[in-house]
Amino acid sequence: MNDEDALWRIANAIKQSYVRLRKRAQWIQSFTPSDENYWKYWEKAAQICIRGGYDPAEFVEVQFHALRPYPSIQNIAALAAENRYREKRKDYAADVQSKVMLQLATIEKLRKMGRPLRYILEDETQPYDSLFKFTVAAINGLDDIAEANRDKAYARYLMSVHYEQAYQGAIPKEFAEAAARLRSNG
């Protein structure tokens, strides 16, 4: 693969990550920025990632984390984007980890109170996200709950490269493999 192909692949991966996260941030089904208007920004962001050795998916995720509700396309290619990434990436990773730990602490507290796991996971008043519900249900043999959350859990898993570490290997291998394929194919 030559340098131009590598730049294209990374720029495309950045674009795909941005589009996926932007759709989620705005709760919209379709968001398709034209390459004619925006390709130069995807390439600039890719050059930042190549120069710094940064993971493109994490680079975009950190931009979304730092510039809520979402950064403009131009923001992720600006000179400030690299500084923002270096300053905020540990905060972002810690935020992902703390959300998982908070859900785990809540479920452990309710289990100690004698509540059945099925009841806890099906309780809509609890703050569990779909990835958490899916993972806990799958580990504990609650296949119907796991299956009901599978698609949303996979979509959530794609939102951060830090979930694998936060869940300490409990994420199904199929999610990690499918996400790796999707991210590499951009």
Description of the molecule:
The longest helix has 34 residues, at 79-112. 73% of the residues lie in helices and 0% in strands. It is built from 9 helices and no strands. It has 2 domains: 3-90, no CATH class; 93-185, no CATH class. α1 packs parallel to α3. It has 186 residues and is mainly alpha-helical. The model has no long low-confidence stretch (mean pLDDT 86).
List the helices and strands and how they pair.
Layout: H1 3-26, H2 35-52, H3 56-66, H4 79-112, H5 117-122, H6 130-139, H7 143-157, H8 163-166, H9 173-185
Helix pairs in contact: 1-2, 1-3, 3-4, 6-7
Short summary of the structure?
Helix content is 73%, strand content 0%. The protein has helices spanning 3-26, 35-52, 56-66, 79-112, 117-122, 130-139, 143-157, 163-166, 173-185.
**What is the β-strand count?**
0
End-to-end distance: 16 Å
- Biggest β-sheet description: none
What is the residue-averaged pLDDT? 86
Helix content: over 70%
The coarse overall form would be elongated
Q: How many structural domains?
A: 2
Low-pLDDT segments:
none
Helix count from the secondary structure assignment: 9
CA-based gyration radius: 18 Å
Elements, N to C (H/E):
HHHHHHHHH
Strand percentage: under 5%
Structural class of the helix and strand makeup? mainly alpha
Tags for this model:
186 residues, mainly alpha, 9 helices, 0% strand
